[in-house]
Amino acid sequence: MTGFHETLRALRVWDTELPPFDPHSAPADPLPLFREWFTSAARAGQTEPHTMALATVDAAGRPDVRTVMLHDADERGWHFASHATSAKGRQLAADPHAALHFYWLVQGRQVRLRGRVSSGTPEEAYADLHARSTGALAAALVGRQSEVLPSLEELERAGAAAWRRAEAEPDADVETWTRYVLEPDEAEFFQGDALRRHVRLRYRRAPGGRWDRDLLWP
After folding, report:
1. What is the mean pLDDT of residues 89-98?
2. To the nearest 10°, the Cα dihedral for 72, 77, 82, 87?
3. What is the pLDDT of residues 130-147, one digit of tens each?
């Protein structure tokens, strides 16, 4: 049986054709470029391109990270949702600064965003919750995210009860469900290169609503 280190060292990176990227032709702000790259990744066959890593900090200043789903990207920022009572919800309430990271392997592309997160309105949270599947509503109805779970049997019972309620009450509300939006003050677009001459374009928000752009060494 092949060991961990042998397997790790045998792995290839970007064993695929990488698209070109001319940073000089990039738009003046990051949103149009993100939408273009997102659509391109999806059309190229990237699995779940809407998944992203969300990094926050806890009360002691220690970083925390998890994978969440992108719900929208517009002029307000990058949207996601969760329970306000979850670990990430509590951390964002204490310190709203956060970072997002997308990795689209099929094209060797990454997008990194840093900024401040704010909460949407209860109406936005309700609309977000009911735009999703019955299973998503059931999961939200279970709640108690990040709490200690005594047993898998208890999860099974709670999940079954939540499914029954979600099917019987498709308009049920979950008060802790929150729509969040990260308004970036910095965005970086990374295009991998087979010869390791990776292209990194960074946007930084400047006074007056405009964006400054810089190339970064890979």
Report:
1. 97
2. 150
3. 888 888 889 999 988 889
